[in-house]
Amino acid sequence: MSRSVFFFLCLIGVLGLAALSSKSTGQAPSRPKVVTTVASIHAGVAPLQDSPQVNSHDAAAFGIRGDAALEAGDYDRALEQYQRMVELRPDLSSMSRRANALWLDGNQSHAMRVLEKAIRGAGTDSSKTASCQAQLALLLFADGAILPAQQVLAPALVAVPQNVSVLLAAGRVAAGRNDFLSARRYYQSLLKISPNHEALVALGDLSALRGGQEIAEEYYKQVEHLRSAQSDSNRHEQMQMAKFYADHDRKLAEAGRLVEPHKLTQNVLDADVLAWVYFKNGDLPHAREAMRRALRRHTPDAEMHYHAGMIAAASGERGAARRELGEAFSLNPRFSLLQAPIAHRMMDKLVDRSDAKPSPAKIAAGLEN
Q1: How confident is the model over 339-361, as pLDDT tens digits?
Q2: Could you tell me if 68 and 49 are in contact, meaning their C-beta atoms sit under 8 angstroms apart?
Q3: Cα separation of 19 and 34, whole Å?
Q4: Residues in CB range of 251: below 8 A, 6 or more apart
Q5: Rounded to whole angstroms, how far apart are CA atoms 314 and 97?
Q6: What is the spatial distance between Cα 23 and Cα 32, in angstroms, rounded to a whole number?
Q7: For residues 360 and 283, what is the distance between their CA atoms, to the nearest angstrom?
Q8: Percent of the chain at pLDDT above 70?
Q9: How far is CA 172 from the centre of its chain?
Q10: I need a labelling partner for 175 at 20 to 30 A (CA). Which of 204, 205, 230, 331 fits?
């Protein structure tokens, strides 16, 4: 699952949580407070985890505590808090949260069942279930089920064609089935609504894939401009930008600076980005250590296993590299427009009977031919 989309869907859930909380208090939800809560979750939400003032019947409180635990990488606690939330209010907001946590914790099939149940329980109005449909589509995509993902998105695209999470998921699924024209159309439609990091990166990658390096570079410059226009970036945005730099071999020193404050993270997605940035900067010992943290919950993310395979290959661990790349392909051989072809080339080299050891520097740059 794309990390940008993952965060966006979590944010949608948090906004729904604010509305849920407002129903019980009679007060209007405050969007700025909700966004700040996700953006600076450790500073603003973590103190609620053990507060004696939390109402044991307040679903919103359990959701907020689950969000804090999830961001901190405490997945057992997150699942516990989300389960309490589901028991109190089994709605789209609570069940989508639990599904995200289940997926991160390595339980793909259970996560999909939770989302399917949430969608069924909400009725047939896709305008209400669109974000959950997008989330389910991305879980299916992560599992390599591209046609089912497309089918899940179809009613949402008809009902709410301007829904940002639906357009992001539709673009990713279309690219995965090599329908690049449709993918481009979805991303461009999204940009007409608002600037978006993932859409700009994807349009750049689509252009690069077709040999349009100059056009791709224009999109990548827009990605950097979007970041520079942000007055105050949060942890998610920092890691998102660091991953962009590492994926595209741009400003690797800056990528290292962005991840440095999060070097001790227990969040598996952040640890994966950390490992990838270390790897791209040639720091294999730290890359291996961070990757161990990333893999500890067995998250079924093809890109994560690709990163692990590339790090293992650069470390001379050919067996581990083959195993991790094989796991990536078994999940979704089309996990990334630009990275998947590199993964396939590396696997070809690893299964070659030649004793020649791949060059770590070239592996990191994705240039080993």
Answers
A1: 999 999 999 999 875 555 566 66
A2: yes
A3: 10
A4: 245
A5: 36
A6: 18
A7: 10
A8: 80
A9: 12
A10: 230
Alpha helices in 54-143, H assignment, sequence order: 59-72, 75-88, 92-104, 108-121, 126-142
Please check the confidence at residue 16 and state whether its pLDDT lies above 60: no
For 201, the token pair is 């990166």
The single-letter code of the amino acid at 337 is: L
Which position has the token pair 């069940």?
95
Please report the beta strands in 116-244, taking only residues with DSSP state E, as ranges in sequence order. none
- State the Cα–Cα distance between residues 130 and 163, nearest whole angstrom: 8
Cα dihedral 258, 262, 263, 264, rounded to 10, equals 180
Amino acid code (one letter) for 362: K
Q: Report the C-alpha gap between 86 and 192 in whole angstroms.
A: 36
Total residue count of the chain as it appears in this document: 369
- Counting other chains too, the contacts that 256-259 makes at CB distance below 8 Å and 24 or more residues apart are 256/281
Nearest residue to 229 (alpha-carbon basis) of 273, 192, 194: 194
Contact call for residues 271 and 293 (beta carbons, < 8 A): yes
pLDDT in tens, 111-152: 999 999 999 998 877 778 999 999 999 999 999 999 999 999
- pTM, two decimals, is 0.84
